[in-house]
From TrEMBL:
InterPro entries: HupE_UreJ (IPR007038). The chain crosses the membrane at residues 36-58, 65-85, 91-108, 115-132, 144-166, 173-195. This is Urease accessory protein. Keywords: Membrane, Signal, Transmembrane, Transmembrane helix. It comes from Photobacterium chitinilyticum. Residues 1-20 form the signal peptide.
Amino acid sequence: MKKKYLLSGLLALFSPLALAHPGHIGTHGFESGFIHPLTGIDHLSVMLGVGMLAALFGGQARYRLPLAFVAIMIVGGMMGVSGLVMPGVEIGIALSVVAMGILLCSGARLSEKATLALVMGFALFHGMAHGMEMPLDSQAMYYFSGFVLATTMLHMFGIFLVQLAVSCMKNRVILNAVGFGIGMSMTVFGGSLLFS
């Protein structure tokens, strides 16, 4: 049960100095879309966190959470491109970082259905942010494909990290400490985004 805490802690390895949307490589095409989720600690931490939560729940949730995130993120991306964006997208993203930190600190104790609903909400805001960055030209589909692929890979990497941690670390005290530390760092970082 305590194995659920470990790899949430690995997110602490990423510097909180990274900003939400630093300069991306170029403004068009697949590479720019692929880099977008990787260049902000907010996007990176939530997308890794979704994979981690999926691994902690196990079973069908291992596929359900990442697939739901990607599907709703695509919807949010289309909303962002079309200009149909809910107010407070950046606040929603910051809140998703805080909520993900809390979920990882708690070791996925919330019900799977409630977690799925939260993950879908996170995905909508992250998708809108990606969509607002998307070029409105012939490169749009390449950009779109890039950020969907990067997101999927981050989910898969989050699942892998948890599985690796569980196989390597059996000491529950260490697992709890690492998981709590990473969850707290995400919560603090998300809070700093909210008040910056």
